[in-house]
């Protein structure tokens, strides 16, 4: 983010929640997640403390961050509330027609319009069916709880330290947000079929209890617990799935992902972020890929040597060549991470040593990227593509 604009990092740092926002938990400042067994003989025990050096876990409300980002854009060059209806490339530029009847013409277009991208549809009409979002084989429940309720349900440490609960065919997640005043909670369940036309369908507490039962005898028993005044040791072993009784009647959210497509650009049109490679949330990497995309592409288009539409096309081609392999690998690895968390990844299963090693290997590849190195590689390829 600071490579794109130092002000973005300043905004981010001013909004984030960390473990240090909970007094007494400064020692978890560099913790990303604690991984907790949710089933089997070890249920409730710590598998590992995953570190994210040096920052640790940082969370923020997307709406607050977006509002702050908008403030950096000069108002005279931006329009909001537009929905694309059609896109046609002509000799004098790319013509965009919007649902409100307005028309715009641009030298180049970069579509950042999400997993259901209209720009992508017009850019790759021959792949329009293949490129539709696909159900990933998992759905989940989501809620934001008051920290006080979470502490009552699971004890102070489990409420205040970001946690992932790994179980048989399902996993849970919780982490503090809003300066540790709230906790974001999610439960994700492997399920081959999603027989609903919408991505969200109504459910009830019994559905959620049934799905939580897949996480093993330990979590199943917690769902039934109503007396949380037991010993301190017992309270600290409770997991976030005890929060079921605090959650409103839930909805089930289908988890979709983006199939791999052949290119992120065509001529004077390109796509980035979720429009190009929307991933499942199981690795916490989707937004980061969009930021990496944006930095690389901005550096190319901002290069002083880019002076014509042909040069811009070369920049797009270089961006695609450098960014597509990594971002599409993240889509694949994010889905695989769900199987790791559900203890059913081939060759790993519930083996403690293999789980630890695999988590560390995956995060090392994900986090230890020389982004500026990608920029330089892309610049060289752009020059190779110059007419």
Automatic annotation (TrEMBL):
<dbReference type="InterPro" id="IPR051104">
    <property type="entry name" value="FAD_monoxygenase"/>
</dbReference>
<keyword id="KW-0285">Flavoprotein</keyword>
<dbReference type="InterPro" id="IPR002938">
    <property type="entry name" value="FAD-bd"/>
</dbReference>
<dbReference type="InterPro" id="IPR036188">
    <property type="entry name" value="FAD/NAD-bd_sf"/>
</dbReference>
<keyword id="KW-0560">Oxidoreductase</keyword>
<dbReference type="GO" id="GO:0044550">
    <property type="term" value="P:secondary metabolite biosynthetic process"/>
</dbReference>
<dbReference type="Pfam" id="PF01494">
    <property type="entry name" value="FAD_binding_3"/>
</dbReference>
<dbReference type="GO" id="GO:0071949">
    <property type="term" value="F:FAD binding"/>
</dbReference>
<feature type="domain" description="FAD-binding">
    <location>
        <begin position="78"/>
        <end position="333"/>
    </location>
</feature>
<dbReference type="GO" id="GO:0016491">
    <property type="term" value="F:oxidoreductase activity"/>
</dbReference>
<protein>
    <submittedName>
        <fullName>Salicylate hydroxylase</fullName>
    </submittedName>
</protein>
<keyword id="KW-0274">FAD</keyword>
């Amino acid at each position: 983010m600071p490579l794109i604009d130092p002000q973005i990092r300043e905004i981010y740092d001013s909004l984030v929640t960390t473990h240090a926002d909970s007094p007494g938990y400064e020692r978890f400042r560099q913790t990303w997640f604690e991984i907790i067994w949710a089933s089997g003989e070890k249920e409730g025990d710590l598998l590992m403390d995953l570190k994210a050096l040096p920052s640790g876990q940082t969370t923020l409300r997307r709406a607050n961050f977006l509002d702050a980002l908008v403030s950096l854009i000069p108002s005279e060059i931006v329009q909001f509330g537009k929905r694309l209806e059609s896109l046609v490339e002509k000799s004098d530029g790319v013509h965009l027609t919007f649902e409100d009847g307005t028309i715009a013409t641009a030298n180049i277009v970069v579509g950042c319009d999400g997993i259901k991208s209209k720009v992508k549809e017009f850019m790759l009409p021959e792949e329009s069916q293949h490129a539709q979002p696909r159900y990933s084989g998992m759905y989940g429940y989501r809620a934001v709880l008051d920290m006080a309720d979470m502490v009552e349900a699971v004890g102070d440490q489990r409420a205040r330290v970001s946690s992932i609960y790994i179980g048989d065919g399902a996993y849970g997640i919780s982490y503090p947000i809003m300066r540790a005043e709230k906790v974001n909670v999610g439960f994700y369940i492997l399920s081959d079929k999603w027989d609903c036309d919408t991505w969200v369908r109504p459910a009830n507490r019994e559905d959620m209890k049934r799905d939580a039962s897949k996480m093993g005898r330990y979590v199943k028993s917690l769902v039934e617990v109503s007396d949380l005044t037991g010993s301190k040791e017992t309270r600290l072993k409770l997991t976030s799935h005890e929060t079921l009784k605090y959650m409103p009647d839930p909805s089930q959210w289908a988890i979709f992902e983006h199939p791999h497509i052949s290119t992120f650009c065509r001529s004077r049109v390109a796509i980035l972020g979720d429009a190009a490679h929307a991933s499942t949330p199981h690795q916490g990497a989707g937004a980061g890929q969009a930021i990496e995309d944006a930095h690389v592409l901005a550096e190319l288009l901002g290069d002083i040597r880019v002076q014509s539409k042909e040069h811009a096309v070369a920049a797009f081609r270089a961006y695609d060549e450098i960014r597509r392999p990594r971002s599409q690998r993240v889509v694949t690895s994010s889905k695989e991470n769900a199987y790791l968390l559900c203890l059913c990844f081939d060759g790993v299963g519930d083996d403690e040593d293999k789980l630890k090693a695999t988590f560390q290997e995956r995060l090392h590849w994900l986090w230890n990227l020389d982004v500026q190195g990608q920029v330089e590689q892309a610049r060289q390829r752009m020059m190779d593509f110059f007419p």
